[in-house]
Fold this sequence. Notes:
Blueprint: H1 11-20, H2 25-31, E1 34-39, E2 45-52, E3 57-65, E4 71-75, E5 79-85, E6 88-93, E7 98-99, E8 104-113, E9 120-128, E10 133-141, E11 152-155, E12 163-171, E13 176-178, E14 180-184, E15 198-203, E16 206-211, E17 215-217, E18 222-231, E19 237-246, E20 252-262, H3 291-295, E21 314-317, E22 321-322, E23 327-333, E24 338-345, E25 353-362, E26 371-375, E27 381-386, E28 394-397, E29 405-412, E30 417-424, E31 432-438, H4 440-445, H5 458-461, E32 465-467, H6 481-494, E33 499-503, H7 504-510, H8 514-517, E34 518-523, E35 529-531, H9 532-543, E36 547-550, E37 558-562, E38 569-571, H10 594-597, E39 600-611, E40 626-637, E41 649-657, E42 664-673, E43 679-682, H11 688-692, H12 707-724
Parallel strand pairs: 22-30, 31-33, 31-34, 34-36, 35-37, 36-43
Antiparallel strand pairs: 1-2, 2-8, 3-6, 3-7, 3-9, 4-8, 5-6, 9-10, 11-12, 12-18, 13-17, 14-16, 14-19, 15-16, 19-20, 21-23, 23-28, 24-25, 24-29, 26-27, 29-30, 32-38, 37-38, 39-40, 41-42, 42-43
Amino acid sequence: MLRRLLASVAALAVAAAAILFINRAADAAAANISVTATQATTGTTTLTYRATVLKAGTIREITMAIPAGTTGRVTSVNGTVSSVTSTVLRWRPAKTVNVAVGARLAIPLYGLKLPAGGPWTLGFKSIGTAGQVITSGAGVLQPLQTYTPQVAIKATNPIPGQTTNLVYQATVTKAGTLAAVRMQLPTGATGTYTTINGTLTVDGGYATWKPKAPISVQPGARLGIPVNGVVLSKYGGTMSLSVSATTSTGVVLTAGSASVPFIAPPAPMPVLAAAGFAAIPAGCPDSWPTTSAENAKAGTADWVIPQTMDGPLAAYLTEVSASCGDTVDLKVTSGNPVSVVAYRMGYYAGLGAREVWREDDVPTVAQDKPTTGGTSLDGKDLRMTSAAHWTKTLSIPVDKVWVPGTYLIKVSDGTAASYAPLTVRDDTGTKHDLLIQQANATWQAYNSYGGAGFYTGGVDGGSGRLTFDRPYNEGQGSGQYLSLEQGLVFWAESKGLDVTYWTDNDLDEFGAQLPSRAGTLFLPGHDEYYSLRMRAALSQGIARGVNVANLGANTAYRLITFTDDTRRAWDIDRYTDGYNSTTWRYQGDAYASQPLLGADYFCPVLGNTLTTGTGWMFDGVPAGTQLPGFIAGEVDFVWPDLYKQPGLTTLASGTGTCRSNGRATPMHVTAYTAPSGARVMNGSTFAYGCFLVRRCPTNWTVPAPDEASQQAVVTMVGNITEWVSRGTIDVPADTVAAKVRVAVPKYKLETTTQP
């Protein structure tokens, strides 16, 4: 008989009723009462009462206690079930049942729904037809064991872009007959999939496994389904993958998901062979003056071009860098006689430059307009703007008076003026404490002089090839040097550090010599565009003990290819997938910047406040100091799903506002020590250099940082230098930041608009 059980009686009544069933302690022990629970496919519970017969006889009825609060529609076998109380059921056999002493009784009760809690002590008593107690006692019912899916997914080789075998594991939570297991594959996975003990079909990003024959499973059973031959996408991350097991009618036996990390280690780079240094040309020295000796020479403020002299005059050099003994050609468009003056940039008592060479009354012509065009070998429109057809105005000999450093060549006709930047290398083979890199490849990407640049006109209108054969239209012809890089030069030379310089192009050409040229490399604020050789040189340098401080953000983010050994032009693939295909990360997660430098590009920002913390980076700066506008330009942060170097630490963090979407943008300054012992620091904002001279781009929220902010950043950069150099560079602890004694125009700075 089916009845709905009531839940109104307290648990104490169950215990009391159970105790009344026991006649003698010895009999109770001999009765060996047990109560077990199993879960049915319907979700209800089956209780099975077992007892040993103590007296022979014919069974009239059996009473069994149940936990208080139990509900359900109860049935049994070989008899009928009725309620005695809300906590006691009576079973009566459907036919005569004779039992002998020692016989084992087993009475199942189906359809119960147990309350939470337990364990419960439950009584059991069998009465004979003559009224005698055939057996009685109590057993302990443990709470029904429940199971969660406990999904786990194991990978033998969890490396993006490689082949792995996956095992999808899950615990059965409901009894039934297993007919299929559906498993979500990693995003972008391909392969020739195989399995065992069943068949496998793949569709829509899921693999479905079916057994050779239906399998009966109980709750708690552990499934383990292999999916072999999975070729992972080159893009990894921590993926949440689902698993579900069902019967032939769609009843779910288990379902859940698990997070699986597919993290790419740093991509292997080609090995660059280091060529020896060329012989020193006749008339060139085999060593150069120290930084302190050079900056003790008289400086000048005449290098500054006031904004009143901005005009149509423009110029460029036929080399981005040179060394003693080279000759560099200058091409000018003006039509008027000009003076050409070379200024070495440095400290020079705060004036910022020293005149090194000049030539006056140089005749010029009004050059033809630059051309925009060109087609790649596969028919792509390159839209390259070039002034290579301009005629030469002047040849400039780089001789022994050109002390290695960064130079601005000022060209002026008295009414209008412009710069042409040049970096002079030290190619003597001397190893310096510090090498500061100039990001001229990035300057060129943002250059739209005379036509198109990488960002001019969007994906369809921008260039796929950029050339140095034209002037810069930023920074009065200086590119992004005055906006972001002069500050590092001014600071290093004001401190008298043993510093030398080169460019992006030099990293590509001479990168294998990096360990021979310097112990520590400074990357500037915005060094975004990297060739394969540039990245390989940087990676190889770190592996061979060169320390790197990236005092910027968005570094090594886009992939370029120099068109030939002159390195006068470079290509970028903007055709495959627009802006996406231009990035290093488009090659796969192994090529992101984070595995190399510690953090990766996130978003452009206009200027938010950094609050200083504790730790070596802020030694000498009170914790809680506000640096308004320091989180600026573009920022990096530590992506959770990209490779993190062992021991990577966050030195500072903050939040900016993304310029492209208005959302909060995290910023993380990071550091780690490579297996070689090299130290690598990632600054994660553009602002270091410009704060050192209190002159930042005009479109930032803080274009003129105050003296307190300048002093704090001077201290921070000193701390960074000493830490990253492993103490080999001793930065003088000046109490006051070096003052810039000349007023230099502020410059607008363009940054990528990609989110």
